[in-house]
Amino acid sequence: MVKNYYFLFLFFIANLINAQSGCFNSDFSNADFEGWRASYGPRSNPNLNKGANFSHHFITNTEVVDSVATSCGGELFMVPPGETHAARLGNNRGGTEADRLIYDVDVVTPDNNLFIYKYAVVLQDGGHDKESQPNFSVRILNAQGNEIDPYCGVYNVSSGEPNQNANVCGDIYWTQWNTVGINLSNYLGQKIAIEFTTRDCSFVQHFGYAYISAKCSKLKINVAVCDGGNNFTLTAPSGFIGYSWTYNGQVVGTPTQSITLPLADYPPGATFECLLTSYNNGNKCESIIQATLANPTVITPRFSASIPCKTDHTTYSPITFQDNTSIVNGTINKWEWNFGDGTTSNLKNPSHIFENSGDYTVSLTAYSDGGCSSSISKPIHIETNPIAKPAIPEIQTFCHYPTPTLASLETNGLTVKWFDSLLSTDEVSEITKVISNREIYAATYKDGCLGPRTKVSIILNALGPPIGNSIQEFCLSSAPTIANFQIKGLSVSWYDAQDGGNILSPDTPLQNNVIYYSSDYDKATGCSSSRWGVTAILKEGTAVISPDFTQEFCLKQESTWRIKDLNHYSSSVRYYSSINSTNQLSHNTELEDGTTYFAAIIDSETKCESNVRTAITVNIEPCDVNIYNLITLNDNTSNDYLKIEFIELFPNNSIQIYNRFGQLVYKMSGYGIDQNYFYGRANAGEIFIKDEKLPTGNYFYILNYKRKDQTEATKKGFLYIHNNG
């Protein structure tokens, strides 16, 4: 029985827990992310891109050390002690990225009410405030994705943070493996999620990543009451900072993980309680667990050995040892096998391979959940295996991407089985992905029997993905294409999917909020990299110069009008010849009459052109008249009337012409309209006969007219009439 006062977050010292995982692939033993929900994105949105990505989520199953810690003179293994796999969450590239892994736990029974995870972090200290630093965080979420308990259900490690037993080297802040347990007893029958997240700093250049591995177990007190003993022992889960034992409300034993008490002092069925205290980011989290004193445990050990091939036990053939132990008042939960050849096992029904022929003694010690034990030993004879080792290439090279499998290996036509080591009994499936340099062992499989093994070294030519920010912004008005991405690599290609998909040409137009995937290629090895996703953000300017308008210009004889003469002209305005043109016009471009130009302003916030262009239609017309002052009356159609250029554009006009004596000889309203011209003939006054040609001489004119803006204008001057007839 478990009583929880808070959502218990247990902090364990590394290596003290050796629980068997009750949660599928929580320890990444499947060498993939099955059972995990992976995502990555910018620091503000780690869930943006769904699915595992090699650059953000990486599984290792070898005892390789972290390169950053090594550069600091330290040694941090990428797999925790006692485990075979781990996952790296994040990378050391920076770029304000965030990476996430989520594991869903269905708390069906008390057998998996303790979730245990191990972590090690490598964070670059940017010297920022805590909220902006690279960090690693863990949260406990309910089925709706909401945080369950902000007090004891959240764990954070930021670069530069004290009380984390971290190693510091310059701006590198890293820890060895730590182990943390989470009490899920309050959530029996429910589904919860454990969320792991790493983030780079808020200012691009400082990185943060972590290694993690996890298991499920059972939170309980072990009660050891063994047959024939005088004492009994109570043992609580290890790793707490405080233990307090009580019986009937009275303190018993010592404040330690395990206490031993006299059996005679307590009756059968006596109930003991232990108050457990753990530390989590400065919060004090407590929980009570109980145990009941039972009758003595009696163990009778037994086992049998299978014959794997035909009738003999032979070298390199896996032999299964079957535990047949019986127990009274307890449960067998631990087995210690000794095969007599220097090897041991803690499995219930282990398989074992003998490398050499001969006679051996196999021993089994069985333990109860209360800590009681009993042993048995038996002899076994091993013959030499008659099957030959497989003759296959012992060094084989592949590209890291696409990820090869064991089925990719050359076997020279032999039927083989694959194993992790020379004496491993667990067959490795041929569909297993090869994600890093490794050694694998092949055994010939013939007539249902396995032979000796050949070691094969697999070498992967790894090429890192192209380097560049995962989010890149462009102005929509510049019509960006794939070629505009800022990314570095040897020979980069682009695709529309993270795997498979279609290759994209450099002139492919970018679309807003779409992820494009780049892959590098090394001609020397013929290998491509995994794909790096880049999200295109297309920004638009919202500022608009004005509604569409028409701008009029006066016709100039001596020069021309240019773009820079338009209204609203400034260095932040761009002009184009059409609504969709991408070719910007020079500000010295000559304006043409009747032509429409399109103007866009640069938005002060987005630094992008406005998404709406203003249409400016240009009209270039005369703004005044031009009077020619010569008339020749010789019927040769040249200079035969008073020409006033552009007078037809000013129909509201009148003209009077006087001789040198100031006598009116001609007048007309609407001059130039409907061919109303002065041909040197009088039409006014009393001196000359109407329509009579005027004599040669100087005359004076007065022209009154209204301009287009309806202002009054007057022009006066002399004209000369030459009358040849």
Give a description of the structure.
The model is unreliable at 1-21 (pLDDT under 50). It is built from one helix and 54 strands. A hairpin with a 2-residue loop joins strand 18 and strand 19 (250-251). The protein is 1% helix and 42% strand.
Task: Give the overall form.
Answer: elongated
- Strand tally is 54
CA radius of gyration: 46 Å
- Number of continuous helical runs: 1
* Poorly predicted spans: 1-21
Number of separate structural domains = 7
Q: Structural class of the secondary structure composition? A: mainly beta
Provide the fold topology.
Layout: E1 2-4, E2 9-12, E3 36-42, E4 49-50, E5 57-60, H1 67-71, E6 86-89, E7 97-107, E8 114-124, E9 135-141, E10 154-158, E11 167-169, E12 172-174, E13 178-183, E14 190-199, E15 208-217, E16 222-224, E17 231-235, E18 242-247, E19 250-251, E20 258-262, E21 271-280, E22 283-292, E23 298-300, E24 303-305, E25 319-323, E26 326-328, E27 332-338, E28 344-345, E29 351-352, E30 358-368, E31 373-382, E32 395-399, E33 416-419, E34 427-428, E35 438-446, E36 449-461, E37 471-475, E38 493-495, E39 503-504, E40 514-519, E41 521-522, E42 527-528, E43 532-539, E44 549-554, E45 573-576, E46 596-601, E47 614-621, E48 626-627, E49 630-633, E50 644-645, E51 653-658, E52 664-669, E53 697-706, E54 712-723
Parallel strand pairs: 32-36, 37-43, 44-47, 49-54
Antiparallel strand pairs: 1-22, 2-13, 3-4, 3-7, 5-6, 6-15, 7-14, 8-12, 8-13, 8-15, 9-10, 9-14, 11-12, 16-17, 17-20, 18-19, 18-21, 21-22, 23-26, 24-25, 25-29, 27-28, 27-30, 30-31, 33-34, 33-35, 35-36, 38-39, 38-40, 40-43, 41-42, 45-46, 46-47, 48-50, 51-52, 51-53, 53-54
